[in-house]
């Protein structure tokens, strides 16, 4: 069961890598726009993160780190909001506000860092 948990953790990190990679391509070589790949990455990270927060495969007597789970969930929701708002603004005016665009990258990096370091 522990192996399955590690596989789901790996998929969770792949989701963040996909989101961050798509963002980095746009930030350093593209038009700084929201892409479909960013939405796919956040979806993978969210589904895998919810699977990791489920109480399966935990050793006897182990407890969840609810502060970490809550922090990561809030950051994930903010990233999702930034993606949605940014895409709406992109459709309307043709450009994503810089604060939203750079916020997506910074929060994605922070969320992946929390997953690995905390």
Q: What is the first-to-last residue Cα distance?
A: 22 Å
As a percent range, the share of helical residues equals over 70%
Cα radius of gyration in angstroms? 15 Å
SS class: mainly alpha
Number of helices: 4
> How large is the share of residues in beta strands?
under 5%
Mean pLDDT: 92
* Shape by Cα distribution: elongated
Q: What is the count of β-strands?
A: 0
Largest sheet: none
Number of domains: 1
What is the ordering of alpha helices and beta strands? HHHH
Low-confidence stretches: none
Keywords: Membrane, Transmembrane, Transmembrane helix
Protein name: Fe-S protein
What features would you describe in this structure?
The chain has 118 residues and is mainly α. It has one domain. 80% of the residues lie in helices and 0% in strands. The chain has four helices and no strands. Helix 1 runs antiparallel to helix 2, helix 2 runs antiparallel to helix 3 and helix 3 runs antiparallel to helix 4. This is Fe-S protein. Keywords: Membrane, Transmembrane, Transmembrane helix.
């Amino acid at each position: 069961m522990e192996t399955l948990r590690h596989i789901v953790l790996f998929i969770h990190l792949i989701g963040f890598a996909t989101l961050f990679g798509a963002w980095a391509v746009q930030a350093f070589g593209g038009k700084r726009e929201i892409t479909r790949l960013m939405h796919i990455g956040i979806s993978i990270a969210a589904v895998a993160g919810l699977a990791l927060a489920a109480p399966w495969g935990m050793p006897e007597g182990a407890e969840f780190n609810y502060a970490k789970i809550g922090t990561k969930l809030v950051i994930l929701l903010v990233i999702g909001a930034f993606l949605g708002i940014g895409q709406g603004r992109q459709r309307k005016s043709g450009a994503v506000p810089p604060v939203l665009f750079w916020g997506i990258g910074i929060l994605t990096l922070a969320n992946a860092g929390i997953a690995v370091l905390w």
